[in-house]
């Protein structure tokens, strides 16, 4: 018999569970539940990837939706059928006019572009600390929104892109959920991850132990941005429409909330909080609509976050993973 | 582009700048004393605007009385918020307070949507506020003059409070060093609460002006003034009151000039321009124009 390590064992369980879940959803769930399952997957990707940046390294970033927007728009534009472009995007730049990719390469290019931009932005912004970094990344989010609103020739401005093809299936979503969790897990329990956690706890101490602050932080930021870009691409072809206002500060708040409630630094915490958050908002939607109590779910969520911050500031799991998984 | 045009633009910039300055002053005071980036500050502006709307149009009180009532409402809301949310978090990391203020902001906005609906409402000041004064070639509305004068009066009152009264001394001491202030027998929780309340009261009055100037208010209106106040405070040096006022005017004037002097197709990049300035200033001179080096930000 082949010997399987504990790590390998968990890996097999994770793959099996995700595949089984996707298969069941694809074949037995109705359309609405399938959609919710997809949203849960995307939330998990977003939360776990933000945890790489925010949780492990302590870089409090509000710019996650900006990278999502970059990934989403890139994927959508690259896969946009050439035949339809003349109608939807009459002023499309000529150099790109004849390029049309299939979903997977477009998605990867979207993620890589988000990562590249993160590297450029991080180069200057990551010198800032704590809430100053938060505000600078929020400024970045607003700049990206303004840019998307104004580059009509490729993004159609405030109207947004619609009628995108439904490339995103539940298998793609949960495939990427797996990649994200696997990467985050590998990073966390490697020397790189230890350096990240060390930086979060004490910069001067970690610097004196020979950790390169700059490159480690930048790497955490870029990795987070890559997965955010991928999530954006998946989102675009799931919802089949993109507007600049989707990628707002509210979205950024919601992702941060998932990470904080789950415990900054805990992958398990992020996953559980992402599932709970998505289910909660989806369950409250019909109540909001039938009693026309718009805004109710956001209020409840905001109150929950404040209570967590006051009474359990480390979140559900702190920065650790449950005992049986380690 | 004539000289008169530029002067007119600068005059408009001063009006906008005084509103920014008012919001920024409170923001900066709150930061100075508790190192909190209060994201919900802009939503106090919204509360002020809606209180004005209610008192002016539903009850029909005269404007000066409304202004005083708005000041009181802002003060009360500030006190309540500080006591219920930020007091229990005293001593936790700065980012915690920031996230809490972000969720407070979202809470207030959604309460607004829930109670008042997201529809923008028209905001009409009495007719005499809109009559026009002409000084040589520059045109002012009475409202603009009122905004500038009120700002000056409030700022002077605030500076007197900070520099001449016992509470002011306590506020400055607490801002300088919380623990030592406590050792000197200052009730720091009370001082912080009062500072928060005063800052909020001023922001609420700014809401009154904001509504009058732009003529429409909605529950999400606080977002932009809040962010702009932050930028203004950073330009002037966060924590410094004269800095916040200076920053407010610089931001107001440069924003108006950006829109007025650049070709029209660039004017929709206005907000991007503001935030690029913010990021550049944060990186290049994190202490702003008049700020002291209180801690390392970069």
Describe the structure.
The complex is a heterodimer of chains A (326) and B (298). Chain A is an all-alpha fold. Chain A has 14 helices and 2 strands. Chain A has one domain. Chain A is globular. Chain B is mostly helical. Chain B has one domain (3-284): ABC transporter involved in vitamin B12 uptake, BtuC, CATH 1.10.3470. Chain B has 11 helices and 4 strands. In chain B, the strands form 2 sheets. In chain B, strands 1-4 form a two-stranded antiparallel ribbon. In chain B, strands 2-3 form a two-stranded antiparallel sheet. In chain B, α6 (166-176) packs across α8 (188-214). The A-B interface holds A 60, 124-125, 127-132, 134-136, 139-140, 142-143, 146-147, 149-150, 249-250, 253, 256-257, 260, 293-296, 298-299, 301-303, 305-306, 309-310, 313 and B 37, 85, 88-89, 92-100, 102-104, 106-107, 109-114, 118, 223, 227, 230, 268-269, 271-272, 275-276, 278-279, 282-283, 286, 296-298.
Quick structural summary:
Chain A is an all-alpha fold and 326 residues long. Chain A has 14 helices and two strands, in the order αααααααβααααβααα. In chain B, helix 9 (223-236) crosses helix 10.
Q: Determine the strand fraction of chain B and express it as a percent band.
A: under 5%
How large is the count of helical segments of chain B? 11
Oligomer: heterodimer
Using the coordinates above, name the CATH class of chain B: Mainly Alpha
Order of helices and strands of chain A: HHHHHHHEHHHHEHHH
User: How many discrete structural domains of chain A?
Assistant: 1
Number of strands of chain B: 4
**What structural class do the secondary elements of chain A suggest?**
mainly alpha
What is the count of structural domains of chain B? 1
Largest sheet properties of chain B: 2 strands, antiparallel
Helix content of chain B: over 70%
Identify the strand order in the major beta sheet of chain B: 1-4
Distance between the termini of chain B: 41 Å
Instruction: Let me know the number of strands of chain A.
Output: 2
Largest interface: A-B, 40 and 42 residues
Q: What would you call the structural class of chain B?
A: mainly alpha
């Amino acid at each position: 018999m082949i010997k399987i390590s504990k790590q390998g064992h968990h890996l097999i369980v994770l793959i099996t569970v995700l595949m089984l879940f996707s298969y069941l959803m694809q074949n037995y769930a109705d359309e609405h539940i399938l959609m919710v399952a997809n949203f849960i997957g995307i939330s998990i990707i977003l939360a776990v990837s933000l945890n790489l940046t925010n949780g492990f390294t302590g870089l409090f970033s509000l710019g996650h939706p900006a990278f999502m927007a970059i990934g989403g728009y890139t994927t959508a534009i690259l896969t946009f059928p050439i035949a339809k472009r003349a109608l939807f995007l009459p002023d499309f730049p000529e150099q790109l006019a004849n390029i049309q990719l299939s979903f997977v390469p477009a998605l990867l290019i979207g993620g890589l572009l988000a990562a590249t931009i993160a590297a450029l932005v991080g180069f200057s912004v990551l010198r800032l600390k704590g809430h100053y970094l938060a505000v600078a990344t929020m400024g970045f989010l607003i700049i990206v929104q303004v840019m998307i609103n104004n580059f009509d020739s490729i993004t159609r401005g405030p109207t947004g892109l619609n009628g995108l093809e439904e490339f995103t299936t539940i298998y793609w979503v949960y495939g990427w959920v797996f990649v994200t969790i696997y990467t985050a897990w590998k990073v966390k329990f490697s020397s790189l991850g230890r350096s990240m956690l060390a930086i979060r706890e004490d910069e001067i101490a970690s610097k004196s132990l020979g950790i390169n602050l700059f490159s480690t932080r930048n790497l955490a930021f870029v990795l987070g941005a890559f997965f955010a870009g991928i999530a954006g691409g998946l989102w675009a072809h799931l919802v089949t429409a993109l507007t600049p206002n989707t990628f707002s500060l509210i979205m950024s708040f919601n992702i941060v909330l998932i990470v904080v409630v789950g415990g900054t630094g805990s992958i398990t915490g992020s996953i559980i909080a992402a599932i709970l958050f998505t289910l909660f908002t989806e369950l409250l939607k019909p109540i909001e609509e039938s009693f026309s109590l718009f805004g109710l779910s956001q209020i409840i969520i905001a109150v929950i976050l404040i209570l967590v911050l006051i009474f359990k500031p480390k979140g559900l799991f702190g920065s650790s993973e449950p005992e049986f998984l380690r | 582009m004539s000289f008169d045009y530029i002067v007119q633009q600068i005059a408009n910039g001063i009006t906008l700048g005084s509103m920014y300055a008012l919001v920024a002053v409170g923001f900066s005071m709150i930061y100075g004393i508790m190192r909190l980036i209060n994201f919900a500050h802009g939503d106090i502006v919204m509360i002020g605007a809606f209180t004005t709307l209610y008192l002016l149009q539903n009850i029909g009180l005269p404007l000066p009385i409304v202004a005083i009532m708005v000041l009181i409402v802002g003060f009360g809301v500030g006190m309540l918020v500080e006591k219920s949310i930020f007091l229990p978090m005293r001593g936790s990391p700065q980012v915690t307070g920031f996230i809490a203020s972000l969720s407070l902001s979202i809470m207030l906005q959604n309460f607004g949507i829930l109670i008042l609906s997201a529809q923008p409402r028209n905001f009409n000041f009495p007719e005499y506020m809109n009559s026009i004064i002409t000084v040589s070639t520059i045109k002012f509305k009475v409202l603009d003059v009122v905004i500038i004068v009120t700002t000056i009066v409030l700022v002077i009152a605030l500076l007197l409070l900070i520099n001449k009264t016992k509470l002011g001394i306590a506020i400055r001491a607490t801002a300088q060093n919380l623990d030592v202030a406590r050792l000197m027998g200052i009730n720091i929780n009370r001082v912080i609460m009062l500072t928060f309340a005063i800052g909020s009261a001023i922001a609420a009055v700014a809401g009154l002006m904001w509504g009058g100037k732009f003529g429409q208010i909605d529950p999400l209106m606080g977002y932009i003034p809040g962010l702009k106040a932050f930028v203004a405070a950073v330009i002037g040096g966060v924590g410094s009151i004269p800095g916040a006022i200076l920053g407010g005017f610089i931001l107001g004037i440069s924003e108006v000039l950006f829109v007025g002097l650049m070709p029209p197709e660039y004017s929709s990049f206005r907000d991007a321009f503001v935030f690029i300035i913010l990021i550049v200033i944060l990186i290049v001179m994190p202490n702003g124009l008049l700020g002291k080096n209180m801690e390392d930000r970069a």
